[in-house]
Design goal:
single chain, alpha/beta, Rossmann fold, 7-stranded parallel β-sheet, globular, binds NADP nicotinamide-adenine-dinucleotide phosphate
Length: 257
């Protein structure tokens, strides 16, 4: 039995929908107080209201992870409302598709700003608060794309997601003296609201390439984050964990027959 997470203060960036919403839901269900963060105020508010039906208190906050001032205000707000910041799930990310011959500098900068620098800024803003708690947990959402696999159109995305793992290793050493752990989750193909637009055939083809023959649920990522945030996971830091139904394992299509 794990020590309950009830009453802990959790910030989840990029949680008005998708994986972030799933992470927020899992923490709220277990009685944690959760701050829903996204740029669109209405979307964050709607999600917070919905998740308030769970055990914990859920509030919305409008902020852009590329803006340090907004990240600082976000962390201060969580401290005011929940009495501190115990856990940061640094999850916000974008994945526009662009092949290399069409990719502009602006495309590259935009993806790296949100997906890589955005993590640095969210973490930097939360660090003073996490230090105070003597229980700091940072969980980043990376991806299998970049650290392990490749996919045409996502060179910038892949670079940002692999970059997160480089950042993680040094950050883990620096934060260890304050008993703060930092780890990353590498999701495979997770079924989010956005994926539904790709159509049933596309989703079936994706599922067929996964040994467990199904896409992941947002709760699968949420449950992994919950474990990494637990007291019992306190000796794990600087690590990454793949949550993908075995997607990265097959050497060839033959292996899936
Ligand atoms: P999603 O459904 O598009 O949701 C993205 C969330 O991030 C939204 O709440 C969005 O809200 C927020 N966001 C985007 N840019 C932001 C910014 N600059 N500042 C603050 N919030 C921002 O995406 P998802 O599929 O759940 O992906 C979430 C994370 O998981 C990403 O880091 C992604 O790379 C990673 N991931 C996803 C999959 C997958 O299969 N879905 C697989 C591997 C990794 P606003 O637009 O209102 O800001």
């Amino acid at each position: 039995m794990f020590t309950p997470i009830r009453g802990k203060s959790v910030i989840v960036t990029g949680s008005s929908k998708g994986i972030g919403k799933g992470i927020a839901k899992v923490f709220a269900k277990h009685g944690a107080n959760v701050l829903i963060v996204g740029r669109n105020q209405k979307a964050a508010q709607i999600t917070a209201e919905k998740l308030n039906q769970e055990e914990g208190k859920v509030l919305a906050f409008t902020a852009d992870v590329t803006q340090l001032a907004e990240m600082k205000t976000m962390a201060n707000y969580a401290e005011e409302q929940f009495g501190g910041v115990d856990i940061l799930c640094s999850n916000a990310g974008i994945f526009p598709c662009s092949k290399l011959d069409e990719m502009t500098e602006e495309n590259w900068d935009c993806v790296l700003d949100v997906n890589l620098k955005g993590n640095f800024l969210a973490i930097k803003a939360c660090l003073p608060h996490l230090k105070k708690q003597a229980y700091g947990r940072i969980i980043m959402t990376s991806s299998i794309t970049g650290p392990i696999t490749g996919f045409p159109g996502w060179a910038h995305y892949a670079a940002s997601k692999a970059g997160m793992l480089g950042f993680l290793k040094t950050a883990a050493i620096e934060m260890a003296k304050d008993q703060i752990t930092i780890n990353a989750i590498l999701p495979g193909n997770i079924q989010t609201e956005g994926l539904k637009d790709l159509g049933k055939d596309y989703l079936q083809t994706m599922a067929a390439s996964i040994p467990l023959k199904k896409l992941g649920r947002v709760e699968d990522i949420g449950n992994t984050a919950l474990f990494l945030a637990s007291k019992e996971a306190g000796y794990i830091t600087g690590q990454s964990i793949v949550v993908d139904g075995g997607q990265i394992l097959p050497e060839s299509l033959e292996a899936l027959k």
